[in-house]
Design brief:
Elements (H helix, E strand, L loop, with lengths): L3 E12 L11 E7 L2 E4 L11 E10 L5 E8 L6 E9 L10 E8 L2 E14 L3 H15 L5 H13 L1
Helix pairs in contact: 1-2
Bound molecules: calcium ion (CA).
Length: 159
């Protein structure tokens, strides 16, 4: 199982859907991966072309998970959802990262795109497989001293 630290930069959006009629939207973007929820600042009056350029760090434990991107328009009272998009977090967890436009939609219709860049640092690299082996040994024979080397490995990996 691969895990690691994912850094995402929510750059900007090009929206086609507008939830405002007489004024410009005040968009912000929410990125969710399981219990991790991050959100950008609201860009007042950015309309359909908000530029957030905000970077977040996320610990990825399950690389098979889906993430969700939600673009909202901040309003007095309840905020409007402009569009929602989804993807596999594994697509972002690659050497060199990604720089992609993700489609967000609303009620089945395309509502625009959000540009996200990523950087990926898997835990341990080579050590990650060593840790997996160590924990396997511990699971079978908890009495032996391999727990110490496992802890030392963890310390080495997590700094
Ligand atoms: Ca608004």
């Amino acid at each position: 199982m691969t895990s690691g630290k994912l850094t995402i930069t929510i750059e900007e959006a090009r929206l086609t859907r507008d939830t405002e009629t007489f004024s410009k939207m005040d968009p912000y973007c929410v990125f969710q991966l399981r219990e991790h929820i991050v959100r950008t600042k609201t860009i007042t009056n950015a309309g359909k072309t908000p530029k957030w350029n905000e970077t977040f760090s996320i610990d990825v434990k399950y690389i098979g998970d889906d993430f969700t991107i939600t673009v909202k328009d901040e309003d007095i009272g309840s905020d409007d959802i402009v569009g929602i998009g989804q993807g596999k977090i594994s697509a972002m967890c690659v050497p060199g990262g990604i720089d992609e436009w993700y489609v967000v939609s609303h009620k089945g219709k395309n509502a625009g795109q959000v540009r996200i860049r990523s950087a990926w640092a898997p835990i341990g690299g080579m050590g990650a497989s060593g840790f997996a082996m160590g924990s396997g040994v511990n699971a079978k024979g908890a009495v032996d001293m391999s727990g110490m080397s496992g802890a030392a490995q963890m310390q080495a990996m997590f700094g």
